[in-house]
């Protein structure tokens, strides 16, 4: 059976990168797979979070899933901390994770920054928890943006390490699914930096809750370079802003990068940007409106999460019992 597991951290400022790199693809995949989409609150606290904001952001991510077109009946939507198996399996996998593997993780290096000695154990062990998320459900496919690739390689390695250590074929090796023209959406202020929830500049990203005016204005102010748009793909080399904006346009209009480049070949940014703004407003505007409507009804959102937790736990609990048995934990 093919099962998808993926998730987003409830750390505020959900943006176009999260939508194009992840959620949008989930919407397309939901009819062909058995899908579990998680709001990963345990991951969120690897960096300090305000408790009230964490709760609000958990509802916000859930609202974004539904507003984007994920069917909460067909798919399981829940928040990670409601299924205790995530933390339990993470411990077991952590005991199989060599420090050398964790030391290679670029996200840890970026997030810990210069204060490496101050960084928490949770931030360091983060990839083992992510592996547990997927393996707890025997997930086979994991649709994510490009930045999660290294974590997924570690999840595959850990699945293999568990199977080898105990001489079993228990966990499938999960496959990353990274596709579309926008697997790595870059900042609107700097085409060499990833669009990110934590960027201090709100102008660097299109938030899922931005209204039409804010979206249009951010596109208009997006950084460009002095040239015209290139004639072909090769002409994008060394032009990160042009590449990023054309990639966003391609993804939003369901075109390939080749098609997007051909459409605007040789034109000025001043001709392209209004088209991009129109497309962004027409795709993102209704999602933002629906998100706000859902966020105004926390009872509904919480009900979806509660039901999702029950369904998730019904899959997770028997897997975890088998893992305990394989590992040798006595159930007296
Ligand atoms: P997170 O919350 O940072 O991001 C959620 C999803 O959005 C994608 N993404 C992007 N895609 C394209 N361009 C960008 N600028 C961009 N920024 C973010 C991410 O690749 C991701 O797919 N560790 C994960 C959450 C997680 C998870 C999991 C994912 C926890 N457990 C198990 C898959 C399976 C994270 O921090 O994503």
The helix/strand order is: EHEHHEHHHHEHEHHHHH
Q: Counting H and I runs of at least 4 residues, what is the number of helices?
A: 13
Helix content: 40-55%
Strand content: 5-15%
Bound compounds, each kind once, are: tryptophanyl-5'AMP
- The H-level CATH homologous superfamily of the largest domain, spelled out, is HUPs
Describe the structure.
54% of the residues lie in helices and 7% in strands. It starts with a strand and ends in a 5-residue tail after the last helix. The protein folds into two domains: 3-183 and 297-327, Rossmann fold (3-Layer(aba) Sandwich); 202-293, Orthogonal Bundle (Tyrosyl-Transfer RNA Synthetase), CATH 1.10.240.10. It has 13 helices and five strands. By secondary structure, the chain is mostly helical. Helix 4 packs across helix 7, helix 9 runs antiparallel to helix 12 and helix 10 crosses helix 12 (269-295). Helix 1 links the parallel strand 1 and strand 2. The strands form two sheets. A three-stranded parallel sheet has the order 1-2-3. It has a two-stranded parallel ribbon with strand order 4-5. The protein is globular and about 70 Å long. It binds tryptophanyl-5'AMP. The site of tryptophanyl-5'AMP has 25 residues, from strand 1, helix 1 and helix 7.
Short description:
By secondary structure, the protein is mainly alpha-helical. The protein is 54% helix and 7% strand. It folds into two domains: 3-183 and 297-327, Rossmann fold (3-Layer(aba) Sandwich), CATH 3.40.50.620; 202-293, Tyrosyl-Transfer RNA Synthetase (Orthogonal Bundle).
List the helices and strands and how they pair.
Elements: E1 3-8, H1 16-29, E2 34-39, H2 41-44, H3 51-68, E3 76-79, H4 85-94, H5 99-103, H6 106-112, H7 121-135, E4 141-143, H8 149-166, E5 175-177, H9 212-221, H10 240-252, H11 257-264, H12 269-295, H13 298-327
Parallel strand pairs: 1-2, 2-3, 4-5
The structure holds tryptophanyl-5'AMP.
């Amino acid at each position: 059976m093919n099962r998808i597991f993926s998730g987003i951290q409830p750390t505020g400022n959900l943006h176009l990168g999260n939508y194009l790199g992840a959620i949008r693809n989930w919407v397309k995949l939901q009819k062909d797979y058995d899908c579990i989409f998680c709001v990963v609150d345990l991951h969120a606290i690897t960096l300090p979070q305000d408790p009230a904001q964490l709760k609000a952001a958990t509802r916000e991510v859930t609202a974004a899933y539904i507003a984007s077109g994920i069917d909460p009946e067909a798919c399981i939507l829940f928040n990670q901390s409601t299924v205790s198996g995530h933390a339990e399996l993470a411990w077991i996998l952590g005991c199989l994770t060599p420090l050398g593997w964790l030391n290679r993780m670029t996200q840890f290096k970026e997030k810990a920054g210069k204060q490496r000695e101050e960084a928490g154990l949770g931030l360091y062990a983060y990839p083992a928890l992510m592996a547990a998320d997927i393996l707890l459900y025997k997930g086979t496919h994991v649709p994510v943006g490009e930045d999660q690739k290294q974590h997924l390689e570690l999840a595959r390695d850990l699945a293999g390490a568990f199977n080898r250590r105990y001489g079993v074929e228990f966990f499938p090796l999960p496959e990353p699914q990274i596709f579309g023209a926008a697997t790595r959406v870059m900042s609107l202020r700097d085409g060499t930096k990833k669009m990110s929830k934590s960027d201090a500049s709100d102008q660097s990203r299109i938030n899922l809750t931005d209204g039409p005016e804010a979206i249009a204005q951010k596109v208009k102010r997006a950084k460009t370079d002095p040239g015209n748009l290139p004639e072909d793909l090769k002409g994008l080399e060394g032009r990160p802003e042009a590449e990023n904006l054309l990639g966003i346009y391609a993804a939003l209009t369901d075109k390939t990068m080749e098609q997007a480049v051909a459409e605007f070949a040789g034109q000025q940014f001043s001709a392209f940007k209004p088209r991009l703004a129109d497309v962004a407003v027409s795709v993102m505007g209704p999602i933002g409106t629906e998100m706000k409507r859902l966020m105004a009804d926390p009872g509904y959102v919480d009900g979806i999460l509660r039901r999702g937790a029950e369904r998730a736990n019904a899959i997770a609990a028997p897997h975890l019992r088998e893992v305990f048995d394989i590992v040798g934990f006595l159930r007296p």
